[in-house]
Structures are given as C-alpha cells and as structure tokens.
Amino acid sequence: MDKLLGGQIGLEDFIFAHVKGQRKEVEVFKSEDALGLTITDNGAGYAFIKRIKEGSVIDHIQLISVGDMIEAINGQSLLGCRHYEVARLLKELPRGRTFTLKLTEPRKAFDMIGQRSGGGRPGSGAQLGTGRGTLRLRSRGPATVEDLPSAFEEKAIEKVDDLLESYMGIRDTELAATMVELGKDKRNPDELAEALDERLGDFAFPDEFVFDVWGAIGDAKVGRY
C-alpha cells in the first residue's frame, strides 16, 4: 500500500489507478504562455497530468505523458498542493525560459482518458443516479445524493469548466458549479467578483476571467449555447 500515490481516490478528481513507477526529470523550454497541460489531483496531495493538448509545447515532449505525477517544478516540491496551485505555478513560469519538471510515471494504470487530445472535453460517461438526483463520491466525507442541475446550470457549469481549463489548465466541475451558484443571481460582473473574492479568494482570479465567467453564465441563462 505504501507504493500507492495517495490514500484516497475521488471519482471526479482521480480517474486512473496510479502505482509508483519510474521517476524522471525533464527540461522544458516554455516557448508559449500555454503549455497545453490539464492538471488534476486525487484530493490527498498528489497532482497528475490529466490531459495533454495536441500540438502544444508539452505534446512535443514524448517523455511527458498523461498519468505522470508532478512531484516538483525547478526543485520546488509540489507534494500536498492542489491541482489549481500546480497549474498556477506552471502558468507563472516566465516565457522564453527553461524549467525542470520532476515526474513519476505510473507503472500500472487503467486509462479512462485518451493519452492525447485535441483539447475538447473528455467523453461524458453515464451519471450514477436517478432522474431527480445524482450520486456524488468525494475524496473526503461520505457520498451524498444531490439534485441534478437544471439545464441552464448544467450548460453554465460546462462553459465555466472550459474557462477554467483555458485560463488555469484545470478541469474542476465542483469548482465550476460553485462559481455558477455564486453568479447566477448576480446583476453585474462587479457583484460576481465580490462573491468570488469572499468565497474563493485564494484563487485570485484575474478580472478578465471573472468577466468571461459572467458572460458564460449570462449566455447559458438566455439559451445561447
């Protein structure tokens, strides 16, 4: 059991079994602002590469693969960091400079996502639940049955999740759902910004991102899908 990377596995946050394999250090030249990585974590302090965008900076480095655990950036340990913290560190690295990734690849895994993607959303599987509710398994706490989102909320969550990937390199439907819940009754972007700062201030979302989230929620409200 000490070989397992993480003590808990969340259905949404951690989508493949990971057993420690080979460690590797890879030098990456950041030629573009966006590296093409989508990061996830297992809720227990380990961040993983969830997706690599086709044609991106990382896509051209064959030593880096979906499923790799990101152990350190430039010698800074990332153990204990959430996926959005890792994504933020990668985003803040200066363009035109070389940095070092310390990775651990999985020795055994059953893959539920494509190794390389064209940047679209992963294939949507069937939800566990009834027509009135859905079963949500969490990395911490008990499983709960929650009401399914409305058609508006579902589309808004999808659009905000896309924005999270575009701006931060993460996909997090729970975070997107929280943002939609906070923003659906707000009258303007300033009110949304205040609500996000109060509830999710640690993320330090840039103004342009908040404005795009406001627009995405507004589009979903009026059916502009």
UniProtKB/TrEMBL annotation:
CDD domains: GH2_GIPC, PDZ_GIPC1. Residues 116-132 have a biased composition (Gly residues). InterPro entries: GH2_GIPC, GIPC1/2/3, PDZ, PDZ_sf. Residues 25-105 form the PDZ domain. SMART domains: PDZ. PROSITE patterns: PDZ. Residues 112-133 are annotated as: Disordered. It comes from the Eukaryota. Pfam families: GIPC1_GH2, PDZ. Belongs to the GIPC family. This is GIPC PDZ domain containing family member 1. It comes from Microcebus murinus (Gray mouse lemur). The lineage of its organism: Eukaryota, Metazoa, Chordata, Craniata, Vertebrata.
